[in-house]
Fold these 2 entries.
Entry 1:
Amino acid sequence: MVARAGPSHKGDEVQVTAQRYADVLVVAAAGRIDHQNAEEFKATLLPHLESCGAGRDQVVLDLSQLEYISSAGLRILMIAAKDARVRQGKLLAVTLQPVVREIFEISRFTLIFEIHESIRDALLKISPAALAAYESKSL
Amino acid sequence: MRIRFWGTRGSLPVSLTAADIKDKIVAAMLGAAGKSLRTRPEVESFVERELPFAVSHTYGGNSSCVEIDIDSGDYILCDLGTGARPFGQHVISKKGATPNTFHVFMSHLHWDHIMGFPFFAPVYIPGNRIVIYGCHAAMEEAFRRQHSAPCFPVDFAGLGAKVEFVRLEPGKHHRLAGLVVTPKLQRHTGGSYGYRFEHGGKVVVYSTDSEHKTDDASSTQEFADFFRDADLVIFDAMYSLADAVSVKEDWGHSSNIVGIELCQLARAKHLCMFHHEPVNSDAKIASVLQETLRYEEITRGDHTLQISSAYDGMEIVV
């Protein structure tokens, strides 16, 4: 038996927070994203991508606290990925819970997003400065 | 209601290649290695029970054509893709040249949904009556144009059967062919129409060539209502969600994920994935079915949704 992941129930919420490490913004999404709150997710996520671009910030999506995402939420992630690509920036996803990883695989969003097992792995790939800042804060 | 799938492939009919058949035989023989299969019943039992469907069978390659059998004496179809050819042969082999009435509900007039009509043998037999229902103004023109030079050697005027065209109004409940039929406009280039068929307390929805915008809450609710409590939803699940919202956005088709979400909202009982991508192999379609079953499992609330993937020759009784 798996944890409830499916259709939303009243009171489901999504929270989006951001933490800067040098030239990388780690944006964390927590909760559940479905057709009822996808627009709210969009409104809170997309402003964080405005500084994303070549020679500017890169963005890492920390999904460790995301319990479920529906097609409506995945569509927002697709918009974010396209937006980052247009700006020639990088948008990576990290630390997907098992259910969310399965949803990414079934929906083929694994072909859209570069996925890493941890924030550290992602920073190691895209920014030594951000990795250093992350590790100094983690100490 | 007994639903028979005569054509389940999307966009373009396809067939297995010599290499595909060889691969299936090799996989079957490897599966049989070490087993004692000496008689035909033993072999058939092994094939049916132990081999994966994608090895022992095929999803088929005919384009859209679905029969709804309510034991009324008349024939009822959705669309006239190339699946109409084997359906026509089936009718003739069963009933010979006796006159029959065929009621056909057209989702739309794109090529893959009408291309079986010139090869639908009953259309050449005098005494047959074929009533084609749809919501498009150009319905009769599309069929006549297909049956004229340079597209086809036999002109529409030379058909033996009596062919009638009946325009339906979307959103209205029509009493036709022993069914209550409600058409609904769907998002597809040129427009397509889904049909909700009700008979004897059962509901079957035929909804193909339909794109769903997941950010359109009112449309989502409309389709949830259209599918409401259906015993079976035949659903265009041609693409992955990632394709449907990126490179194939606005191509007019949907995904397995959206099919599940809409059926869960509607509390439909059975989702049957339909209009398979022509490039997908049997193994690929089977793999998508397994993933879709898993997606239903991990998103299940208090309502269980049965999932299947249509194949040419499949029957579902509701």
Entry 2:
Amino acid sequence: MNVNDAIGRSLAGNPVFASLSEPHKELIAGCASLKVFQAGDIIYREGQPADQFYLIRHGRVGLETYVPGRAPIIVDTLREGDPVGWSWLIPPYRTHFDARALELTRVIEFDAACLRRKMEEDQAFGFAVYQRMTPIIASRLAAARRQMIDLYGRPNERGVAWR
Amino acid sequence: MAVTATLPETMVPRPYLVDRVTADVSDTFTLVLKPQYGTEQFAFRPGQFNMLYLYGVGEVPISISGDPNDPQRLVHTVRALGTVTAAMQKLKRGSVVGVRGPFGSSWPIDQAEGADIVIIAGGVGLAPLRPAIYAILARRERYGRFVILYGARSPKDILFSRQLERWRSRLDTFVDVTVDRATGAWHGNVGVVTGLIGHGGFDADHTVAMICGPELMIRYGVLTLIDRGVRTNNIYVSMERNMKCAVGFCGHCQWGGNFVCRDGPVFSFDQIADIFQVREL
């Protein structure tokens, strides 16, 4: 199987982009290449220009933030099928967290500048990409807010005491 | 003429001895009880609870967390939250505890036969679901895909972690765990437990889901399952309210038209959907 076949198959089976039309899949695939990260590899660092984004074909990626004097804090983990990074869609195109491969991770890497240019030129394509990425951004925002609530903190002693 | 009032059996605590106390996670512990007199077996259905009475301190409702196929051992997992449960945490082998029960409704173990099963638990909410997990694993061949999803605050707060590992090592059970926060020493998932639902690989049309944990987690869990196509009458939740008498008499746990102690704690979501979002209840 050549690289283009592998990218095509991955896109066809990806929960986010599988529903793109074939011409749009070809457009997105034209900005893609395959890449492998070993466990522990940094994929990108917080604050860097968001020049790439990734779809995980296999493996897991941790999003981390760095606090001086402490071990890196993992804020989210992503896995097969998940996009890694959305900062490439939103000015000023700068990453918000470190992304690290937690195990051997195979991805499709997209050239963000290439994609943005195609999205400008073909706005139906641009809309289709935003339509698929925006729910991801929204669900991650909601999940991050839920994590902040401290759901499992101590309630008072009423009702059933096992929770 | 003298009048003798007889209390119904459900109102009289039976004395049990603490056989073992195990510290689980920071503020949570498990009590294994056996009858003080005789060799009574304690039959219950997964999801039911007992009223545990610490003489001279008070009585609290605690879900049964043991194996329904092992009625010799009455097991409760308790989170020390207030006066009674904090005192229970100090119990030693041989201490006496009063037991009333079992009370309440149960997880739909029999009705779910033939379906995929999704268990979603958060924090100590895994304890009331553990009997259901035991029951399903005891007759595993009668169910489709079996998915256990568990969320905890941090890696050190994961309840029954060895058991989760054992269940995960089975080839017929999918177990996924996530925590809300972790440092680099943790190699598992980070994120909310509802984020695991999409990776469960179950057939939404033929799935029975059972959820227990903080009410907010239940709410998000139910919404995510509905978004995935699971029918509301196939989603079961265990609710928590202020239970006192446990027999639907005192009214402390009234929730809309239900008494949680008698009509619950396990409800199918379509039973309670109309009152679930009522904030005043």
